[in-house]
User: Fold this.
Amino acid sequence: MKRVTIYGWVSAAVALVLAAVVVSAWLLQPTPRVLKQADIDSAVLHTLETKRLPSRTARAAEAVRESVVEVRSYAPAEKAADKPKKTASAPHAKRDPPATRHKAPPESPPLPSGDELAKGDPPGGKGESGGKRTARHIGSGVVVTESGIILTSYHVVADALRLEVMFHDGHTAEASVVQAFPEKDLAVIRPSSIPDDLPPATLGSSRNLAPGTEVVAVGFPFGIGPSVSAGVVSGLDRRFVLPDGKQDLDKLIQFDAAANPGNSGGPLVNLDGEVVGIVTAILNPNQSGTFLGIGFAVTIESAGVSIGSSPF
Assistant:
């Protein structure tokens, strides 16, 4: 009986000691520090000083990168070779003629092309007469719906016997013209298949643009791309008449981000990654066919008006 009592006292003592240790540990815990704005500012400044973040133009280009496609227009090689190429004369927006012309309805006259002829054979491509097809134009386009509908320039696809688009992941598909708006140099095309999880571009507004606003052009100049160039809006509400005098475009965005043959149909993007225009032409006072500092884009509002009745 006495031994049991001693054990009871020992157990009680041990329990008291353990309780004292627990209470002491709890009392000795440091008080949580309350973060102040100065602490947050210091952490942000440290990150900016030690981490290299992407530039605003890089973020804008990345926002639209997966939505930009290469558009290839094919025609029979033997006919392309027979058609002479027109040359530029007085200063005008550089737009080389298509290699092949077919008669079009009076209300939809074909536009001269803004892209240089790009020679190259599609895999296994053959014309209806058995002749090999050659890539006549290489241009650009931008996906604007989840179903894969693409907005591009009309002169890139005008008179094409066959269209092919290549997506950001290398997926290639034939495409067909859904609607054409030659008066605005715009066309809507639909690919026969699209990659999984294809993101459409976010459409913005040109109404928020002003001379000096930074913009980014994304496309496939000379078939190389996707390529990115950055610059500023040089002017708004511009207009030019094509050399033949039969077609003119107005309400254009003038910009100085580098654009070359192949950029036609690609998006002009603001720094929020929103499409504000579709690249259509470059001003070229000589016959170099390369960018001299002045490019033009059709506003996204003009594109919206044009595609209002489309299957978007």
Q: What stands out?
A: The longest strand covers residues 227-241. The chain has six helices and 14 strands.
